[in-house]
Write a structure and sequence with these properties.
The protein is α/β, with parallel strands linked by helices. It is built from 18 helices and twelve strands. Helix 1 (about 10-30) packs antiparallel against helix 18 (about 390-415) and helix 5 crosses helix 17 (about 360-370).
């Protein structure tokens, strides 16, 4: 006697039930509710550790301040230039955009206006979240032997044993800012005074070619650059342009001292420097609803609160909220991190450069680097993956539903 076949409608019913279960699981997983505000935030990886550490606290904080309302954060992590291009192309449509530095804000707004004819950023509303200056990183022995203190000193060091590294000006925020600061040193101007004429000046190009000819490494990740410096040691790489927080991270790791008997330290250029200040930008875009804009302003308030800012300090960031920098609790926390043992200084007295506002000038910075860089180097790649995470309970119904569809398809083929 043959086996009794299960009617097809039962398989369909099971499939429908599995889809319903999937929806219920997703609702439970994200505390979903029809009135829930989904706040999409596109930010850069430099602050990922800090954001991941404080983000779980925000929904409860939000609900306590706004009774009857709930919010869910939805993050996308991309490099600064990639994130800007992703929004321009329409691939990403975040409510909040947080690049690594304010230097990208006028460039993005200029690019958007050029493409769409309107502005997407209200500059008065842009606020820095956390900050790390761009500095010259070097080994203690090289600093003591050469006593360099300025960006301009790179030109003289190029006559000796300078082995320089910074990231790609096309792919990385720190590399982009490094080239802008080199142009600043070569021209004798501050960054916000640079013009298109300066970018075409052959004297500036000659200065940069001499400095860039000493480069031994380019890459797409600033964190990878710092790790490579540790591996290569004082004889392989002696000056790098990077973030102050990476000097702290390297010192805390201890590998540099264990391998070479000395640490990498920060030189704060006397002329001044640009800061990687991680601005919080709420986009004036057609896809942003009033509810999302409200949730974004609340998230900004949360991020700039004293307690949240304090939690950024162990990651090597200085507070972006300048109203709390003299708070005794903040100072006490900073003294534990910003100290000579970590290769950095607590008090920085050098000038803080203003960000250029000419979008066309900012757009051409990578072109100057392409013209003057060391052409014999291969770009050193660093694979940093940002993968979507799937919970087990979410995957099971999907797989189960797919199997049911295959079974139904095979049964129909047999009937034929």
């Amino acid at each position: 006697m043959g086996k009794r076949k299960v009617p097809t409608f039962i398989f369909i019913a099971i499939l429908v039930v599995s889809i319903i279960v999937l929806d219920v699981v997703r609702q439970a997983q994200f505390r979903g509710d029809k009135d829930e505000i989904v706040l999409s935030v596109l930010y850069t990886s430099e602050k990922k550790g800090w954001i991941n550490s404080i983000a779980p606290e925000f929904p409860e904080w939000f609900s306590e301040r706004n009774l009857g309302m709930s919010v869910r954060l939805e993050f996308e992590v991309l490099g600064t230039r990639t994130s800007m291009l992703s929004i321009l192309s329409g691939e990403s449509k975040p409510v909040v955009w947080s690049p690594a530095a304010s230097v990208w804000v006028p460039l993005f707004d200029w690019s958007w206006e050029k493409k769409f004819g309107n502005h997407i950023i209200d500059f008065d509303q842009v606020k820095p979240l956390v900050a790390s200056p761009i500095i010259l990183g070097t080994w203690e022995s090289y600093r003591d032997e050469n006593n360099f203190t300025k960006w301009a000193d790179l030109y003289d060091l190029a006559n000796s044993e300078l082995k320089l590294a910074h990231t790609s000006a096309q792919e990385s925020n720190s590399g982009y800012m490094a080239v802008l600061l080199e142009i600043t040193a070569a021209s004798g101007k501050e960054p916000d005074q640079i013009t298109m004429t300066d970018l075409q000046n052959t004297t500036i190009h000659d200065w940069m070619e001499k400095v860039e000819s000493t480069a031994v490494l380019y890459g797409s990740s600033t964190g990878f650059l710092a790790k490579q410096a540790v591996q290569l040691g004082p004889s392989g790489l002696n000056v790098m342009i990077l973030y102050e927080n990476l000097i702290i991270e390297t010192a805390k790791d201890g590998e540099a001292f264990a391998k070479w008997g000395e640490n990498i330290v920060a030189v704060y250029p006397e002329e001044g420097t640009l800061w990687s200040d991680h601005p919080f930008v709420i986009l004036n875009a057609s896809w942003v609803t009033p509810e999302e804009q409200f949730a974004a302003t609340e998230f900004e308030t949360f991020l700039l609160s004293k307690e949240t800012q304090k939690q950024a300090i162990p990651f090597g960031f200085r507070p972006g909220n300048e109203t709390i920098v003299n708070d005794t609790d903040i100072i006490a926390e900073m003294e534990q991190v910003f100290k000579s043992e970590n290769g950095v200084a607590l008090d920085i007295t050098i000038p803080k450069f203003s960000v250029p506002t000419d979008g066309e000038v900012l757009d051409r910075i990578p072109d100057v680097w392409l013209k003057t860089r060391a052409t014999t180097l291969e770009k050193d790649e660093d694979a940093e993956y940002f993968q979507l995470g799937y919970e087990f309970l979410t995957v099971v119904p999907i797989v189960f539903g797919a199997l049911l569809i295959l079974i139904i398809f095979k049964r129909k083929r047999r009937v034929k």
